[in-house]
C-alpha cells in the first residue's frame, strides 16, 4: 500500500554564515532552482548580511542571530543558535530545512533545534579542516540521530565532516558544485579585454592576472602584494584582486597597491565572470578549499588557472591536467607557474581545454539534479507534488 506523500511546499534556508562566498552563492543557486520548481523559500541569516543576501537570493531574509562567532566557543554558539532558531521554526513551520555549513561545526545549534522539532534537513558541508577535531559525543550524538541528510561538496570534505561529527562515512553523500557554461562570444571577450585594461589605465596588451575570493589567509591573500610585484618584474603584469575580507586594509596599505601599482583592489564585484573573460589567467593560492566555484567559473570561460595543489584537492589526479599546479603556495612557485602558463602556448592550450571539459562535466544542472534527488527521498517536489 502506498504511504503518505510528503510535499515539500516550504523550505527554510538557515545560514550560519558571517560573510558571503562560494558556499552562499551555491546555496542561492539551489534555492532559485527549488523556487522555480514551486517550493516556497524562506531565508534566515545574520542581520548584517540582509542587504547582500537579498540581492543574491531574491528574497529578504529573516534576521536572526544564527551566525557562527568564534569568540563564543562551541557551547556558546550552540546555545545562541538554538535559541534563535526555535521561534523561527515555530513561526514559519517549514516542511524541511537547508543548512549550508561553511565549517562542519558552524551549524551545531541549528542542528539541535531542527532535531528537537523533528524537521527533516539537508546539511551541506562546503569546507572542513585537514585535521578534524571531533565534536564531544554529548553534542554530536543527538545530531547524528536527527532526520538529517548529510552532503559534502567533495570526497575529502566528506571524510573530514564524518570524522568531526562521528558520522559513518557512508552516511555523507558527495555532490560536487557545478556551474553554467556560457556560450562562446569572441567579440565580447575582445571588448572586455580592451575595456578592463583601459579602465585600469593599462596598455591594451598588458598581462592581466586575476584573484577572486575572500581576502584572508586561508585563501592565500597575504601573498598577493609580493606576488603582484614578482609578476610585474617577470611579465610586466598587473594583479587584480577581487573580493573583501579581513586582510583588505593590510593589502591596501602595501606599496604594491599604490595608485598605478601592480596590485589593484576593486573590492567585491558582481561581474567576476566578465573579469575572467578579460584576464590572461586566474591564480588560486588557497591553503584549503572544498570545491572552488571560482575554478569552474574560470574553466567555463577558457581562462587559464594557476592554483595550489590544496586549492584543487577535490579533483584528485585530474587537478594537474586542468591547471598549472603549485605543490607549495610560495611566491616563487606561483610566479613561475604563471609565467610558464602565459609564455608556453602548448601548456596553456592543454590546460584550458582540459579545464573546460571539467566545467562541462561538473555542470550546474547535474549538481542540482542530485540535490533534488536527495530532497525527493523524503518529500515530493514540483510537478510530482501536484499530482500526488
Shape: globular
> What does the average pLDDT come to?
92
List unreliable stretches of 5+ residues.
Answer: 1-5, 381-388
Give the strand content: 5-15%
Biggest sheet record:
7 strands, parallel
Q: What pattern of helices and strands is seen along the backbone?
A: EHEHEHEHEHEHEHEHEHEHEHEHEHHHH
In whole angstroms, the N-to-C terminal distance is 14 Å
Number of helices: 16
- The SS-based structural class is alpha/beta
Number of distinct beta strands: 13
Widest sheet, order of strands: 3-2-1-4-5-6-7
Determine the fraction of residues in helical runs and give it as a percent range.
40-55%
Radius of gyration computed on alpha carbons: 22 Å
Keywords: Glycosyltransferase, Transferase
Protein name: Glycosyltransferase
Domain Glycosyltransferase subfamily 4-like N-terminal: 20-179
Pfam family, one: Glyco_trans_1_4
Describe this structure in words.
With 388 residues, this protein is an alpha/beta fold. It has 16 helices and 13 strands. The protein has a seven-stranded parallel beta sheet with strand order 3-2-1-4-5-6-7, sandwiched between helices. Helix 3 crosses helix 4. The radius of gyration is 22 Å and the shape is globular. The N terminus and C terminus are likely disordered.
List keywords for this structure.
single chain, 388 residues, alpha/beta, 7-stranded parallel β-sheet, 6-stranded parallel β-sheet, 16 helices, 15% strand, globular, disordered N terminus
Amino acid at each position: 500500500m502506498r504511504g503518505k506523500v510528503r510535499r515539500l511546499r516550504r523550505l527554510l534556508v538557515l545560514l550560519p554564515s558571517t560573510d558571503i562566498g562560494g558556499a552562499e552563492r551555491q546555496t542561492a543557486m539551489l534555492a532559485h532552482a527549488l523556487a522555480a520548481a514551486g517550493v516556497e523559500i524562506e531565508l534566515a541569516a545574520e542581520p548584517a548580511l540582509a542587504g547582500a543576501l537579498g540581492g543574491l537570493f531574491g528574497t529578504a531574509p529573516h534576521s536572526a542571530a544564527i551566525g557562527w562567532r568564534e569568540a563564543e566557543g562551541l557551547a556558546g554558539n550552540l546555545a545562541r543558535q538554538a535559541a534563535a532558531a526555535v521561534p523561527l521554526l515555530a513561526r514559519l513551520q517549514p516542511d524541511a530545512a537547508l543548512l549550508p555549513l561553511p565549517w562542519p561545526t558552524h551549524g551545531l545549534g541549528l542542528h539541535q533545534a531542527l532535531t528537537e522539532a523533528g524537521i527533516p534537513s539537508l546539511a551541506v558541508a562546503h569546507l572542513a579542516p585537514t585535521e578534524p577535531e571531533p565534536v564531544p559525543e554529548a553534542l554530536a550524538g543527538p545530531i547524528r540521530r536527527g532526520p538529517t541528510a548529510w552532503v559534502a561538496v567533495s570526497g575529502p570534505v566528506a571524510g573530514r565532516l564524518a570524522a568531526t561529527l562521528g558520522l559513518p562515512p557512508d552516511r555523507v553523500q558527495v555532490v560536487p558544485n557545478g556551474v553554467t557554461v556560457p556560450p562562446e562570444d569572441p567579440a565580447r571577450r575582445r571588448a572586455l579585454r580592451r575595456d578592463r585594461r583601459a579602465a585600469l589605465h593599462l596598455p591594451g596588451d598588458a598581462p592581466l592576472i586575476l584573484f577572486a575570493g575572500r581576502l584572508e589567509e586561508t585563501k592565500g591573500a597575504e601573498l598577493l602584494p609580493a606576488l603582484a610585484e614578482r609578476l610585474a618584474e617577470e611579465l610586466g603584469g598587473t594583479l587584480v584582486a577581487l573580493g573583501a575580507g579581513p586582510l583588505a586594509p593590510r593589502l591596501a596599505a602595501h606599496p604594491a597597491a599604490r595608485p598605478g601599482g601592480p596590485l589593484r583592489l576593486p573590492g567585491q564585484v558582481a561581474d567576476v565572470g566578465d573579469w575572467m573573460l578579460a584576464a590572461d589567467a586566474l591564480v588560486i593560492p588557497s591553503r584549503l578549499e572544498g570545491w572552488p566555484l571560482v575554478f569552474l567559473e574560470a574553466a567555463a570561460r577558457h581562462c587559464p588557472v594557476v592554483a595550489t595543489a590544496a586549492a584543487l584537492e577535490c579533483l584528485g589526479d585530474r587537478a594537474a591536467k586542468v591547471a598549472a599546479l603549485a605543490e607549495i603556495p610560495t611566491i616563487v612557485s606561483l610566479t613561475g607557474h604563471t609565467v610558464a602558463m602565459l609564455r608556453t602556448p602548448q601548456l596553456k592550450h592543454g590546460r584550458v581545454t582540459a579545464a573546460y571539459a571539467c566545467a562541462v562535466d561538473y555542470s550546474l544542472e547535474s549538481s542540482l539534479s542530485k540535490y533534488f534527488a536527495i530532497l525527493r527521498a523524503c518529500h515530493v517536489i514540483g510537478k510530482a507534488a501536484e499530482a500526488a
